[in-house]
């Protein structure tokens, strides 16, 4: 009698957990530093799965944000900057002024782009930088690239701007995923998958 009850309990528990993980919720999502990222996002009407999430440490001491990368299946480290849908979500653990985002991005852009590439993209980079707002801990920026549309910058789910061009997306996502990213460790973590 006790064995049957226990067996039935295990079966019900397994069914419950399976049902829970099939729901479109954050129950089965990834949590890093107590920050939850959903298992997939919708880009252009299609689901794009979470590749991985990881924290960024400034000078290996200060935790600045936790980043999450969403990429279609089959996209490799070599093709991540190609003309494919992608999203990078950054949830901040410290306050940052809006004017500091462009200043922080500039050195990495300069390392990854030739002077002529940077000059060609300058107007679009400046438009994006002018859109950034101050953030406080717990707020989240998302950069979402949809081929044919452009790169959308959103703060806490509210779209702020869209910058056109696959070349812009490759350059800007290159800050995190390019040849010389801001952090090689973060790039490795985001691209290795879960």
Describe the structure.
By secondary structure, the protein is α+β, with helices and mostly antiparallel strands. It has one domain (29-192): Chalcone isomerase (3-Layer(bba) Sandwich), CATH 3.50.70.10. Helices cover 38% and strands 30% of the residues. The chain has helices at residues 2-22, 98-112, 115-131, 166-177, 184-192; strands at residues 30-32, 35-37, 40-43, 46-58, 62-70, 86-92, 140-146, 150-155, 158-163. A hairpin with a 3-residue loop joins strand 4 and strand 5 (62-70). Helix 2 (98-112) runs antiparallel to helix 3 and helix 2 crosses helix 4. The termini are far apart. Residues 9-27 have low confidence and may be disordered.
